[in-house]
Amino acid sequence: MKPARLSPALWLLNAALLAGGALLLWMIAAEAHRDRQRALPPAQAMSRVHWTAAVANLAPALPEPVLSLRARPAPTKDAPPVRPASPEPTDEELRAELQAELNHRYALHRTITGVGDGETPGAFVLCAGTRLFVFEGMNLNNLQGREAAGRADVQVLAVGTDHILVNAPSPRRPDKRFDVRLEFAPASVSRPER
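Given the sequence above, the corresponding structure tokens read:
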């Protein structure tokens, strides 16, 4: 036989062996599946249960909730809730609270000894990012335009070299007014060197 005719015969023989091997593997897998099916218990039909019937059957088995070991009195509808009485703040506490709030809101930037005619002292104050110019006798309610950010019922009484004396109402008790000092922030004060 010539080698040219031998090559197709070898290909046909390989294809037949491959097909036979695949058939053998398929038969082994089918036999293993049948063995597994025989080992399992027979399938049983599941009964269909309606959910309302299931809940009705479970309800007697659930315990009653226990909310409290003590019996609670019934709430009365006409009695207002009782709040503990807070002690009335003293004038010193109100003054300290007002001074802390004003020093937080208005940051004293610079004081000027004479404005315009040279006799009226003034100061630059920062409020909410806006630079305000205030002078003695001024009420911050009179501010307009951009400066209106600092509007409040604050009367400027005196401008000193290191503070401003103002008169303002207490935030907690608006009927009481106090004289307080607006001072430079501790970090912004220039201290003389020794």
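The helical segments are 3-39, 51-58, 91-105. Try to locate this feature in the token string yourself.
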